[in-house]
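Two folds, back to back.
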Amino acid sequence: MKLTKEELQSRLHYDPLTGDFTWIDGRNKGQLAGGIDNHGYWRIQLGSKLYKASRLIFLYMTGEMPKGVVDHRDRIRTNDTWDNLRDVTVGVNNSNKSHRPGKSGEPGVYWHKQCQAWETRPKINDKRVNDKMFEDLDEAIQYKRSREDGN
């Protein structure tokens, strides 16, 4: 049987700011649900099925499972906060693996020494483009993410 948003929300509570799922009732009420698997992802067992927490989050927040794979923007597999997750193709997800984040901690945001500013290089249509400069790192990261998400 296919898991629904309503069934999920009747069993678990998700906090989008912490990324944590907690049990709503039963003997584990209020406790964190699931645990970390051998690959470093948070997994939760519901009935006889084991789910990646990041996939359940999409169901919980949108009512649908992700169409592609869930990408952790900061590449920290246990950071399941809502703003750190995005539904992407396998190709986009794999492109994150090869980019080291450097000083900024964010792939696609680099320190431009000559300009003394953060340069954004979002990946658009599978190509990295030089884009814009920012004095503030957080602004640069948010801008780059919004460009990659098509906003």
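---
second:
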Amino acid sequence: MSDSQGSGLPLSAQLEGLLFIAAEPVAPTELADVLEINVKAVEAGLAELEALVAAGGLRLQRHGGRVQLTTAPELAVSIERFLGLEARSHLSRPALETLAIIAYNQPATRPQIDAIRGVNSETMLKSLLFKGLIYEMGRSQGPGRPILYATTPDFLQHLGLNSIADLPPLQTAAPVDSPDEMLKG
């Protein structure tokens, strides 16, 4: 890629530097503004950067139209040990269930989550909010205007994903025969 602003560095290297110092995920339009180039060129540079870092210890993570440079999920244990952090807290089965419902249906409301799970999800939602894996993105226009929940970039890091698109396809259960049909067979 050609250099921008006469820095002498390829665009992918400039993007890497900007993302390295960014405190939070950045929109490609912001990067384009800073580099004074168009968004299409930024996207091409991000694709090049993603290919370059894929073989190393960094990853390009995309979430909600924003991009961020993160460490490779395979390094989590070594990084935690290096930083002296306790082992990553594991999520309970109900928390994972709630998180999966939000991830595949986002934005999702508590009534929707409760209906799918068949139980009250208030405690799980509070736990996931506290852990920074979900956030309140607004309110639904439906009756009672329930809170809408969506996943955060930390959710992607926790699961070692680069994008929400990397989630495995949702598998639906086979239809269950009704008791009447089972008696006939």
